[in-house]
């Protein structure tokens, strides 16, 4: 069965009005591909040669500087730099125990005296032996230790009344980093 002529004409007209989006996508994709290829070629041949020439200039400058300084002096400079780097490392890790004495002076009550001090920097602990004139003096002293921002923990190991004074042993644990340079605790 053959189609009527007016239907054939209608099909022909509809075919010519088909959407052109597929052709536009193909054109857009081709343009992106072409731009990508141009950028790649520009980077691969233009920018790469520019970087290589800059590298050559820097290497020639380094060579000329190394020729200006004798090998003997270069060795001395390298050794000196190595010593400075080692000193920097040592000083950064150097333990400073002197702040403990200033801290004790500032945080000791009037009627409290110390007879023995043992400092363990690895554990941030200060062991103290001493005496106080009264229990109230001792309690005030422990309160001062506990309220200090530099102290993490204050602990009493012993307290006894001997020779008209209260003998005590206490352990003060300082905040981490207190004994190292540049710490906020100092």
Any overview of this molecule?
The chain has a domain at 99-174: Gyrase A, domain 2, CATH 3.30.1360.100. The protein contains five helices and four strands, in the order ααααββαββ. It is of the alpha+beta class. The model has no long low-confidence stretch (mean pLDDT 85). A hairpin with a 2-residue loop joins β3 (151-162) and β4 (165-174). A four-stranded antiparallel sheet has the order 1-2-4-3, with helices on one face. The longest helix is centred in the first third of the chain and has 48 residues, at 21-68.
Q: What key attributes describe this structure?
A:
alpha+beta; 21% strand; elongated; 186 residues; Gyrase A, domain 2; single chain; four-stranded antiparallel β-sheet
How is the topology of this model organized?
Blueprint: H1 5-16, H2 21-68, H3 71-92, H4 99-106, E1 112-120, E2 125-132, H5 135-147, E3 151-162, E4 165-174
Antiparallel strand pairs: 1-2, 2-4, 3-4
